[in-house]
C-alpha cells in the first residue's frame, strides 16, 4: 500500500524564522511529488517535483526531492503570519494507480507575530 | 474567480438521513475527484471520474456513491450517513490523469459534513 508520512505534525515558530517540513514516501511506480498549502479553504498548489536534486523555488518557499532516499523537504524562509496553514505533501503514481494522489497527513504550521 | 465550487460549505445531517454534496467546475477538466478528509488526517481518495468513466477506490464504502451528469458537475451521495462519516469532503479536478506542474489537481473549498 502506498504511504506518505510528513513530519513534524505541527510546528510553532515566530515571524522571521526559517522552517523545514519533511515528507517521506513509499510508493510503487512513483511519478511525482506535490506540495499543497491548505488554509481554511481549498488546498492550493505550491510545487510539483519529478526529478531528484532540482530545487523548485517560489519567493520564500523552496522544495527539493531525493528519489534515492524517498523524501522531499519544503523550506520557508523569513516566515510570516500568512504562512500559517496546513502543508500537505502528496505523491502521484503510475501503473494501476495512475492519476491518483496519496496524501500525507499534513504539517500544521503556526507563525506567531 | 472560483474555478472549483462546492456547495454547501457546511452541511448538517442526521444519522441515517441521505445527503448529497455538490461540486461544479468552470475549468472544463476531464477528471473530477472526491476526497474525504477527517480531522488531523490525510485527504483520502474515494473515487474519480475520467469523463463519464467512474473509478471507485477498493476501500470506499458502498454507502458512498457519485454521479456526474455532465462535464461541469459531480455529486457525492451518502446514502445512510453514520457518525464516522463526519469529515471535510474535498472535490478536485484535473485536465487529465497525467499531472504536470502547470496542470495539476485543483481543489474546491470543501464541504464540512456534521452528522448528528
Question: How would you summarize the topology of this molecule?
Answer:
The complex is a heterodimer of chains A (113) and B (116).
Chain A: E1 3-7, E2 10-14, E3 19-26, E4 30-38, E5 44-49, E6 56-58, E7 61-66, E8 71-76, E9 85-93, E10 101-103, E11 107-112
Parallel strand pairs in A: 2-11
Antiparallel strand pairs in A: 1-3, 3-8, 4-5, 4-9, 6-7, 7-8, 9-10, 9-11
Chain B: E1 4-7, E2 10-13, E3 19-25, E4 31-37, E5 44-50, E6 53-56, E7 64-67, E8 73-78, E9 87-94, E10 106-107, E11 111-115
Parallel strand pairs in B: 2-11
Antiparallel strand pairs in B: 1-3, 3-8, 4-5, 4-9, 5-6, 7-8, 9-10, 9-11
Features:
heterodimer; A: 113 residues; mainly beta; six-stranded mixed sheet; five-stranded antiparallel sheet; 11 strands; 0% helix; globular; B: 116 residues; seven-stranded mixed sheet; four-stranded antiparallel sheet
Question: Can you put this structure into words, describing what you see?
Answer:
The complex is a heterodimer of chains A (113) and B (116). With 113 residues, chain A is an all-beta fold. Helices cover 0% and strands 58% of the residues of chain A. In chain A, strands 2, 4, 5, 9, 10 and 11 form a six-stranded mixed β-sheet that branches. In chain A, strands 1-3-8-7-6 form a five-stranded antiparallel β-sheet, with no helix packed on it. In chain A, a hairpin with a 4-residue loop joins β7 (61-66) and β8 (71-76). The relative contact order of chain A is 0.34. The mean pLDDT of chain A is 92. With 116 residues, chain B is mainly beta. Chain B contains no helices and eleven strands. Chain B has strands at residues 4-7, 10-13, 19-25, 31-37, 44-50, 53-56, 64-67, 73-78, 87-94, 106-107, 111-115. The radius of gyration of chain B is 13 Å and the shape is globular. Chain B starts with a strand and ends with a strand.
